[in-house]
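Consider a concrete sample entry:
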Amino acid sequence: MTRFFRAFIILQSVLWNTFVHDSMCRKLYSCAILCHIKLYNIIPLLMKSISPNFFYTAASFAVLGGLVSCQSRQKPLNIVYIMTDDHTSQMMSCYDTRYIETPNLDRIAKDGVRFTNSFVSNSLSGPSRACMLTGKFSHKNGFTDNTTCKFDGTQQTMPKLLQQAGYQTAIVGKWHLETLPTGFDFWEILPGQGDYYNPDFITQTNDTVNKRGYVTNIITDESLDWLQNKRDRSKPFCLFIHHKAIHRNWMADTCDLNLYEDKEFTYPENFFDTYDGRLAAASQEMSIAKDMDLIYDLKMQRSDKETPLKSLYEQFYGRMDSAQKAVWDKFYTPIIDKFYKDDLKGEDLVRWKYQRYMRDYAKTVKSLDDNVGKVLDYLEKEGLLDNTLVVYTSDQGFYMGEHGWFDKRFMYEESMRTPLIMRLPEGFDKRGYIPQLVQNIDYAPTFLELAGVEIPDDIQGISLMSLLRGEHPQDWRSSLYYHFYEYPAEHMVKRHYGVRTERYKLIHFYDDIDQWELYDLQTDPTEMNNLFDKPGYESIIEKLKQELVGLQTLYGDSIEYRLRDKKL
């Protein structure tokens, strides 16, 4: 390449950055050759209208910064998206230091960003995954709940759009959308919820194969095997690593069973919530005290004891081989013997269940954190880390005893809020936390913009790229919409929708009840005091209802109007 031609290429980059909108420029970094062709054609026109002084200045900036800002972006960026099941931010030390340490997850946050106001639009596994894949709310992508829906794989999805742009796409692990994956060059998924020990996987040939070991380790190893041995190294990639963990019933790896046994976990301040003024909260079936199964959830298995979910636990336990069972039994037998000997009652039993639950959950997180470390180490060793966006999130949040609960579903903070951390590629200088309101429908447009793919108009999420570049958009959203549909079903959480702003949350429970709730998150962050019927909040409620209807209109959810028509 001649010296003149090299200078010409640099000048093209500067001109493009100058005359084209910034987001468009960034989209075209991944298609630098095409950009050059286009610029080659328009350079003569630009030269006629630009003063000599500008060219001198532009050339100077090109030499100083063009090589760094443009040349480094010519290589398309990869994406590694790690999603876990039911991992809540309370159990990540980059968010909350009260309970456990997660050093490898903290690595991602330290070398990138941590979103402090990240939420889902429907706190349930399948619907959340559908929102992520499509960038659309549940009522638009068609997957509203786990009990009645099957994902329409023929519709537009973010992986399909990445494929069309030349990306290799792969998913390993939990799918949980009833139909088989589309839009992936490679996939290997767990049937349904999957198993912790010696799990089955469905392959692209529609065969079911059994893999020996612990599910979190297997998903990581299969993902790294694809990166190392199965992908086309000439193409950028988007790899989805979807873990079963940390889903109920929190069966830890045998090597982690002894962890946290001496730790006494702090009780949330509303652990013994009585649900005054909150009818829907009072009628759920996700109470640690009443609904957490002693055998299935807490592993207190004994032949002479019966619980509603005992047989399901026996199925999970039965998947272990003799060596795994030996380690498992050696750990649990003394705990089981002591538990039935002590014969705890009342509040003492509830407190014991909480501690057992927290320890099991924490052990499952430990394995997950170790495996995230394996992925980061591999990317670094292979020289991929600086050219890859690494995303870690969960399909929703989870209750760690808040309100006396486990599980999710409600629009309350612990389940609506979800962790979101990203390790940014080279060239992105943003570090620390990002406070703007974001939602899981935003992931699809973010990945598309990062890849230089035009974002379709029907995608309802907002790209996070401006936030990752350290910008502060003045017109960023000021409210979030939420809609939960699965009732009657497991845990019996009422159908509801609502709006969340920076300070307030307005929720409408409907179907078999008609109840409104209002919370001031500034004065009542644990959502214990329903202000809806309290005097003095009429104007706030009216504004929030207007905001709610505005969001429903924007996103095309007609539920409010349907309920009004039903009353008439």
